[in-house]
TrEMBL record:
It comes from the Bacteria. PROSITE patterns: GNAT (PS51186). GO terms for molecular function: acyltransferase activity, transferring groups other than amino-acyl groups. It comes from Alkalicoccus saliphilus. Residues 7-157 form the N-acetyltransferase domain. InterPro entries: Acyl_CoA_acyltransferase (IPR016181), GNAT_dom (IPR000182). Keywords: Transferase. Pfam families: Acetyltransf_1. This is GNAT family N-acetyltransferase.
Length: 164
């Protein structure tokens, strides 16, 4: 685990930095900037990705009925709006954050057993990122603002070794 990279709830004093985030034009068709989520809604959890205490990325986790747009599992979390600030991209932060997400989600949301997300079929870079983190394609499809999306899933359950 990268000790200098951490996930946590957005603090009010971090909103100014998050509101300055920029994304390359080609990424804006697939995700949203953090400033769109300045006000937290019920069942929406704003998560910041920090490097050495400084915000470098952002994501949302939903526990509300919004999850049912992607899954029938009432114990799932829905991951949305993952972004890394433009000047921080290419440093592996998204991959490291996804590596930490399973543990963070299991500890922060006890009783939840799955993370689901949607990824645009044309966003192959994000698909590879999620697959590397252990997400798999569920076979479900959904239409999004930029076209067809794949629904992917990651189990939060710890597999116990089988005893003989």
């Amino acid at each position: 685990m990268n000790k200098n990279l951490e996930l946590g709830y957005v603090k009010q004093e971090e909103m100014e930095a998050l509101n300055t985030f920029e994304l390359p034009e080609e990424q804006l068709q697939f995700t949203s900037l953090p400033q769109k989520y300045e006000r937290e809604e019920e069942g929406q959890h704003r998560i910041v990705i920090r490097k050495n205490g400084k915000p470098v990325g952002f994501l949302l986790l939903y526990t509300s009925d919004f999850i049912y747009s992607c899954t029938d599992n009432p114990r799932a979390l829905l991951l949305k709006a993952l972004s890394i600030n433009r000047q921080e991209q290419g440093k592996g932060y998204a991959g490291k954050a996804m590596e930490q997400l399973k543990t963070f989600a299991a500890e922060t949301f006890p009783g939840r057993n799955e993370i689901v997300l949607t990824v645009n079929r044309r966003n192959t870079a994000a698909q590879r990122l999620y697959e590397k983190a252990g997400f798999h394609d569920t076979g479900r499809r959904k239409m999004g603002p930029a076209g067809e999306q794949y629904v992917m899933s990651l189990s939060l359950e710890i597999k116990q070794p089988k005893s003989n």
